[in-house]
Design a protein that fits this description.
Blueprint: E1 17-21, H1 32-35, E2 43-46, H2 57-69, E3 76-81, H3 84-95, E4 99-105, H4 115-127, H5 132-139, H6 146-157, H7 161-171, H8 177-182, E5 187-192, H9 200-209, E6 214-218, H10 224-227, H11 229-242
Parallel strand pairs: 1-2, 1-3, 3-4, 4-5, 5-6
Length: 249
């Protein structure tokens, strides 16, 4: 009887670049805990969106695509968190075959809140300072450690409040039907099971359009990659390796 074999796992670290599109603050600061667990030889790029420019999803897509195209011609694995998830889908569609995989982290393909809730949140973001209590409640109440709340405060404090408010309003108009149907790139979703901002309906709706999407669940609040950096990285790395695609050529 022939021996059972498993598909070869591709060592993508040597051939690709990991590109991270952060959430609402857009600074990339909140991704420090995750970046710290990445292997040293992996090329990585954490984007920081312009903190003082009112750019919607279309303008941000062009802004990101121009900067990726300006770098070396190498395969890309895109990671999009929360606000950055719909952006990652649009960037992947624009870049075509160069993007080999898209990882969606605690995010959505359609507005996760009612329009009135987005409007109310945009007013809070525009006029209220980023107090620790408000951030702790939004990010997971008592489950979010003080150091992570402080990091979130610092990140939000670096961005013009008008820009933050505009990004919240942009979320209300997110519709990803067309881009998901166009996109053939493999998709993974990293889900936070105690997420107060993005509920399980977001994952279900994405899978209705892309039933092939791989889902990995973690028992954390919204900032799943920050609560579980090593575990989420291991899940992402294992999934990308399992694609077994030769990216060297």
């Amino acid at each position: 009887m022939a021996a059972l074999t498993t598909p070869p796992q591709h060592d993508w670290h040597r051939h690709a670049r990991l590109v991270i599109l952060p959430g609402l603050d857009g600074t990339g600061l909140l991704w420090q805990p995750w970046v710290e667990v990445l292997p040293g030889g992996l090329r990585r790029q954490v984007f920081a969106y312009p903190p003082d420019r009112l750019l919607g999803y279309e303008a941000l897509t062009r802004w990101v695509v121009e900067r990726i195209e300006g770098e070396a011609e190498e395969p890309v694995v895109l990671v999009g968190e929360s606000f950055g998830g719909p952006l990652a889908l649009r960037v992947a569609a624009a870049l075509g075959g160069r993007v080999k995989a898209v990882v969606l982290v605690a995010t959505f393909g359609w507005a996760p809140l009612w329009p009135w809730a987005c409007r109310a949140m945009s007013l809070v973001v525009r006029w209220a300072p980023p107090r620790a209590g408000v951030l702790r409640f939004a990010l997971g109440d008592g489950w979010t450690p003080a150091w992570l709340v402080a990091l979130a405060q610092e990140a939000v404090g670096r961005v013009d409040r008008r820009v933050l408010a505009a990004r919240v309003r942009a979320v209300a108009a997110v519709r990803s039907d067309a881009v998901l149907r166009e996109l053939a790139t493999p998709l993974m979703y990293v889900r936070a099971e105690r997420d107060r901002l993005v509920g399980p309906g977001s994952v279900a709706r994405l899978r209705r359009v892309r039933p092939d999407m791989h889902v990995a669940c973690f028992d954390t609040p919204h900032l799943v990659a920050q609560h579980e950096p090593a575990a989420t990285w291991s899940a992402v790395d294992g999934w990308v390796r399992s694609l077994a695609v030769d990216w060297a050529g």
